Amino acid sequence: MKLSSLVKAITMDGKCQQIKSMSFPDMLKKSDTIKTTSEENKNSGIFYGNCEYSDFYLDPDIASIHYKAQDVKPSGLFVAIPGHKADGHDFIDIAIGKGASAIVAQKKSVKNSIIIEVENTRKALGRIAAKYYGNPSEKLVIIGITGTNGKTTTAYLVESILQKAGFRTGVIGTINCR
Q1: 150 CB neighbour count, 10 Å cutoff
Q2: Which residues share a beta bridge with 36?
Q3: Are 104 and 79 in contact, with CB atoms under 8 Å apart?
Q4: Which of 118, 134, 150 is the last residue of a domain?
Q5: Which terminus of the chain is more exposed, N or C, with fewer CB under 10 A?
Q6: Where are the alpha helices (DSSP H) in 60-175?
Q7: How far apart are CA 72 and CA 110, in angstroms?
Q8: φ, ψ dihedrals at 130, nearest 5°
Q9: pLDDT of 48-98, one tens digit each?
């Protein structure tokens, strides 16, 4: 999947300012890049933040998405997630060394790579992964079963009926997950 289509997934309106044909030395000189916001989406509670996209390479194909720098594969996208004990931004050099085609970060970072700067990398990772994997949540039907007795039996009965009807099923319960 092309990086540009994943970048569009970061904001609901698909706006992420691209700064094309920027050489690495020019990027070092540039203190502030252009940002775009959508007031409509910002006020609706579904806006995931400003997005900057320094595209000084071609629009690469992304082969995988990673949030652990150690797992990055060539042509992968690395999303730097800040944590309680470690900050993914500290591992950007490792991700680049392992062949990451682009980095999603929420801290200003000047590296010799494509950097997509967002306000919240954790939220951006969810939207990017959804786009990359074909928005699977839009294709799921979820059935919840509540009550005091008989939930597991009912879940297994519903699963059996749906399977006989040709649906792929999964069950998450207190006894097991399958």
Answers
A1: 10
A2: 51
A3: yes
A4: 134
A5: C
A6: 92-97, 121-132, 151-164
A7: 19
A8: -60, -45
A9: 345 655 554 467 899 999 999 999 999 999 999 999 999 999 999 999 999
Q: Do both 121 and 145 map to the same domain?
A: no
Q: Collapsing DSSP states into helix, strand and coil, what is residue 119?
A: coil
* Three-state secondary-structure class, residue 129: helix
Report the distance separating Cα 95 and Cα 112, nearest Å: 12
Strands (E), the chain: 17-20, 51-55, 64-66, 76-79, 102-105, 114-118
* Distances 58 to 10, 27, 49, 108, 114 between C-alpha atoms, Å: 19, 15, 24, 21, 10
Look up the pTM and report it: 0.67
CA distance 18 to 30: 14
Strands of 17-20's sheet, edge to edge? 17-20, 51-55, 114-118, 102-105, 76-79, 64-66
Q: Find the length of the chain.
A: 178
Quick one: DSSP state of residue 60? Answer: P
Distance of CA 123 to CAs 36, 56, 79, 159, Å? 18, 25, 10, 32
